[in-house]
Amino acid sequence: MPPANPRPNKWPKTLTSDHLHRLVRAERDPRRALELFDAATAAAASAPDPIAPSPATVSLLTSRLASAGHLPLATSLLSRSRGLFPSAAELEAPFLTLLRAFSRTHRPLAALHLFRSAPSDLALPHSARIYTAVLAALVAHSQLHLARSLLADMRAAGFAPTAATYNVLLKAHCSDAATPIEDAVRIFRKIPKPDACSYNTIIDGLCRRGRLDEALELFSEMVGKRIAPTVVTYTTVIHWLAREGCFDDALKTFDEMGRRGISPNLVTYSSLIDGLCKGGRSTSALELLDRMIKEKLLPNTIVYSSVIDGLCKEHRLSEAMEVLDRMCLQGRKPDAGLFGKLIVGLCDAGRAVEAANYLDEMVLAGIEPNRLTWSLHSRINNTVLTALCTKGELGRAFQVYQSTRSRSISTEPTTFHLLVESFSKKNKLERAAHVVLDMLSERCIPERETWDVIISGYWGKKKVRQEAEEIWNQITVDLIT
Q1: Which segment of the chain is annotated as a signal peptide (predicted)?
Q2: What is the pLDDT of residue 471?
Q3: What b/e string do you get for 35-68 counting C-beta neighbours within 10 Å, with b at 16 or more?
Q4: How confident is the model at residue 421 (pLDDT cuts 50, 70, 90)?
């Protein structure tokens, strides 16, 4: 981080509130900005023509302190700034900034406490905007019982809910799975002038409860009332249409979105592409992928993963590999899950050696197992080993097995047995014995069938059989004599 701007040693004689605002805004370190603010206000207080910092400066500094996690300093600044303004009402803007900062840092109860203490500590009366901001903080962090209580206080204080308040309540009812969606619909119908946010919330709530038809009716109502749908509206509708398998309707809505001049975002594309791939419409998904790139909206790993998964399920493996190559060329790093989908698809298609090559590529890319992906890596490696043994590619199978062992990835008992059986049948008994010793070292006791396979392999060797017969004959002679 670049060093903070140095603190001036001497203030100009004509220090103005605009000058102070520029100085505070130019300082990168919020704590240093606070020191500068305090020094400037102290110098201004002793000047012949004292100046008062503007509410914008206090709001800016409060926001920066809060965003940097210095919430006590931000709260103290707001409290000290009460005497700098002709009217306490001018503190409302920075106060709202601080409330939202508490919400962003997941401290809704602290926001509620600040709200309760505002009249006494700041001489700042409550307003509909302040009530709404605290309601939003409580709802965002699932404190719904406190939100309902605060709403009752708001009404008792004589504040009628505004459109913003209704939207917060609407979100609370839609996000609470235990609350009947009919309650949310009733609140929606009480809004005197619902806006796009109101429609977005209730449409999403209905879709999440499986009531897509009602959501589509509200979408049509919204358009009919000339309330312009936003990218959020279209993305919600497209997502749920695709999820319900209404792919033609989803694509039609997507095209309508473009005709209205609303550009789809990454979430819009991701939702539609994922739905199309899961529904066996990978061709349409590929067309959308090309369109994204043409519009300079680079797909993320989730989008690429959806496309590759869809192509693999439709056995279009060559195209899946091309998409993976394109992804790498665009600087996106595949993860274990994405590699796994392609590797398993190749194994299912009997292309075991190619699957093993991609497994090597995954290792070379530095994609190592961790606590969360350990079982995934184990499943991928065991799948490749099984496919190689089934195809008779035992040399390659032993290479993959050794790589698996070197990375401490566990081998399943069934895979152990298959390796022993495959090596024994091909007279590669040393390798079979090596695998058995590895089994024993992991306390994976071989089944009787595994012992039978390797012993039969050794017994099949002429030299071993002759030596065994000689020993048996000698034992017989000794017993007789």
Answers
A1: none
A2: 44
A3: ebbeebbebbeeeeeebbbbbebbbbbbbbbbee
A4: confident
For residue 405, pLDDT beyond 80: yes
The amino acid sitting at 358 is Y
Q: Which helix (H) or strand (E) holds 304?
A: helix 301-313
Residue 436 CA to residue 401 CA, distance in Å, equals 13
* Predicted local distance difference test score (pLDDT) of residue 4: 46
CB 351 within 8 A of CB 317: yes
Distances in Å between the Cα of 455 and the Cα atoms of 397, 415, 418, 434, 452 are 21, 18, 15, 14, 5
The chain-wide mean pLDDT, for the chain, equals 85
188, 194 in Cβ contact below 8 A?
yes
Angle at the Cα of 274 (from 271 to 276), degrees rounded to 5? 105
Name the pTM for this structure. Answer: 0.72
Q: Which residue do the tokens 């879709």 mark? A: 207
Q: What is the pLDDT of residue 463?
A: 54
Give the contacts of 95 (CB within 8 A, at least 6 positions apart): 78, 118, 122, 124, 130
- d(Cα 312, Cα 426) in Å, to the nearest integer? 32
User: Apex CA 236: angle with CA 232 and CA 241, to 5°?
Assistant: 150
Question: In the structure, what pLDDT confidence band is assigned to residue 358 with cuts at 50, 70 and 90?
Answer: very high
Inter-residue contact 287 to 272 (CB < 8 Å) = no
Of the ranges 96-110, 252-266, 440-454, the best mean pLDDT one: 252-266
Spatial separation of the C-alpha atoms in residues 249 and 246, rounded to whole Å = 6
Question: What values do phi and psi take at 263, rounded to 5?
Answer: -80, 125
How many residues would you count in the chain?
481
Say which residue the tokens 């609407």 belong to: 170
CB 229 within 8 A of CB 196: yes
Cβ contact 4:29 at 8 Å: yes
Name the residue among 173, 226, 223, 232 with its Cα closest to residue 197.
Answer: 232
